[in-house]
Each structure stands twice: as C-alpha cells, then as structure tokens.
Amino acid sequence: xxxxxxxxxxxxxxxxxxxxxxxxxxxxxxxxxxxxxxxxxxxxxxxxxxxxxxxxxxxxxxxxxxxxxxxxxxxxxxxxxxxxxxxxxxxxxxxxxxxxxxxxxxxxxxxxxxxxxxxxxxxxxxxxxxxxxxxxxxxxxxxxxxxxxxxxxxxxxxxxxxxxxxxxxxxxxxxxxxxxxxxxxxxxxxxxxxxxxxxxxxxxxxxxxxxxxxxxxxxxxxxxxxxxxxxxxxxxxxxxxxxxxxxxxxxxxxxxxxxxxxxxxxxxxxxxxxxxxxxxxxxxxxxxxxxxxxxxxxxxxxxxxxxxxxxxxxxxxxxxxxxxxxxxxxxxxxxxxxxxxxxxxxxxxxxxxxxxxxxxxxxxxxxxxxxx
Length: 372
Known about the structure:
- By secondary structure, the protein is an alpha/beta fold.
- It is built from eleven helices and 14 strands.
- It has helices at 17-26, 45-54, 73-81, 109-128, 178-188, 205-214, 235-248, 264-276, 315-322, 325-330, 346-350; strands spanning 6-11, 33-35, 38-43, 60-69, 97-102, 141-147, 150-156, 196-198, 257-261, 283-287, 301-304, 336-341, 356-362, 365-371.
- The strands form two sheets. The protein has a seven-stranded mixed beta sheet with strand order 2-3-1-4-7-6-5.
- The relative contact order is 0.12.
C-alpha cells in the first residue's frame, strides 16, 4: 500500500479550495478536485509528501483510510475496523485520535473518538496477532470527521498544520495566518516582477510569504512532517524531494519587498520573523504613518491587512486609516492596492471602487479581499 496510488485530501479554509486545487495541478496532481473545505487527489505517499512541502494555501494533507455513511456507533466501529490500518501502521505506532462532528446523528466528539480508537486497536491486534500495542513508535495522527452522517477517517501526514512554516514565533496582535497570507499574495496578481509594499505590515507575514513566492521557496522547506518518520517510507526519495526544493530556492529573485507600520513593537517582531525566515537583507521594514508614506518606486503593489475595528482600536480610528488609502494611491501613479477587510463599508469610507472582490475568512471573520 505504501507504493500504491492512494486517496488524499488537502484541507483548506473556506474560499481557498480553488487556489489549493490550482497549486496541486501545478505540482502535477492532474486529478485534483475541489470539494467543500478541501481538495481531493490521488498520489503515492512519497508524492503526497511533495504536496506537504510545496502547498502554500492548504491547512493539512490527509490520507483517506475510510469513508461511508454512519448513523450509529456500530456503523462507525465497523467502518473503522475494516480500513487497511495494518498496511500502513507498524505494530508500535502511536495512534492518537481527534474528531469533529457537524449536523450528524452522532454528535458526541468524545464518543466518536473512543469508538474509532477501539475499532483501530481491535484491527491492529488482530492483524499483528498480539494482545498489546505499545504505541511507542512514530506518530500516526488519526482523525474522524462526521458531516451530515458521512464519516471520513484519515491519517494526517503533517503533524503541525501547514501554516506553521517555522519562522513565526510570536504573533503579535491580530495575526494573519501564513496560509491566508500566501493566498492573498496569489489573489493580488503580484508575480514578483514589480515592487511590493505593505503599509500596515504588522509582524511581516504578508511580506515573508510574498518573498517566498518570488524566490520559489517551498513553504515547508525548513520544517518536519510526521510522514517523514513513518515506517516504510522511502527516506532516500523524501531526501531527494527536499534537495530539489532547496535547489529551486533562489533569494536573488526577490524584487523590492518592503513594509511599514506605526507600531515599533510590531516592527521589532517583523524583523525577528524576517531573520528567522532567512530573509534578512531581502525585506526592508520601517516606521512610517500611512498618511506620510511616499515611496520612490513605480508600479507598486500595495498589499495589506489593515485593522478592521473588531480587533485593533475602534471603528472610527480604522475608518480614519481607510480614508488615507486613496491619497496613497494618488501619490503613487500606476500602482495598485489590494486590501482584505471585514468592514462592510470599506469602499464608501475609502472613496474607492474595487475592480474585483473575493469573499474569504480571516480566522472566523468573514472578509472581502478587494483589488483597486
């Protein structure tokens, strides 16, 4: 089974499934198919590791072990027990189980986890003809998700979620997840051939993700994945995939990427994150009020995640900031502005009309990503 074509799903935040699908298609997974909250594709485990390494907008990559309708705990038990666990998991596998339930008859997450674990253990003890399972080996994170009475049982290849790139050790206020930041860079249309500036850069996540994109850096290049420690994995092939990613990374391709903010504390964190991302000297950040910001470059892509009012200061302060967006554009002819915000009246307050809008979520906040 380890060398066979298997079914995987790459989970993604609502609104990002299409971007995730396009990334998988570019990586060579020709059958990638978007679903609600995920993208389904087939691959070997080795190929799926490459997806873990390169996907920038996905949250996790999961191996589908079983799927089916479950209206009772007995049905869930039988579904899990029949899955081919012993073809993937060694006898000493550590097997933690997580769970999620929504709009299903089985609504107790704790009970679903317990049933999954019991069925998994019975399968493994039967397959290995043993009365004990030490669980001292590599971790195989099991997840049972029920939605509208359909159960999907998976193994998580990632460990930490894919947004954990390894460079951000402190979030500051109102953090933007790395996966969301990468999505905004893609949606902005920026291709790394013009300057990019974030006038409300905070702790620098948008800038770092933009620089990664321009430099062809695999998002997971410097972090580890659970699947790398799984028994039977082709370690030489995984090492080759990592080495190929390292060869593709070229910081010399990064154009002018810069950011500014009025918070010195945020800028201190931004510089730390830039250094930890290996991009010191490639991204410039400085303190500047947006009202006074004037850059020498031309054809700038202004890409930003400004305060919304729900999170930093009050709405009036935020609206005062929004009114400075149009003058910023007027001071930089030929440039464009890309903004994500949950404020429903952003265009009215800013005096701008968006050329294009995309509905996204920043955490649990429903937002619009607008291009001007």
